[in-house]
Amino acid sequence: MPENRERTSGTPGPHTITEVRIRLAPDATSGLVAFASCVYGGVLLNDIAIRRDQAGHLFLTFPRKLSASGRPHPLHHPIDRETAAHFEAAVIGQVQRLLGPAEGPSES
Fold this sequence. Notes:
Structural class: alpha+beta
Order of helices and strands: EEEEEEEH
Number of strands: 7
CATH architecture: 2-Layer Sandwich
Radius of gyration: 14 Å
CATH superfamily: Stage V sporulation protein G
Helix content: 10-25%
Distance between the termini: 28 Å
Number of helices: 1
Number of domains: 1
């Protein structure tokens, strides 16, 4: 699977996305476009899925585990809208650079 890395320039702060790695999905027909890994504040966050909705907009889903009863337990996710917007801009922006502008803007 192809992988692409991007590092941001400047001095990173404690809550800055300093690297984005993209692994394109082998078959993007199911809505899954790629997986991303990000370095955020010195922590590597893996398995962020980039998906396409029926209207063609890209969005992120974060990994979670299901308990035996079926209750979801997020492994990691943004805790506020501002942080989510930073992840969306960094990750979806990198996907759009890889696949071209035909992918269109993300909308929440």
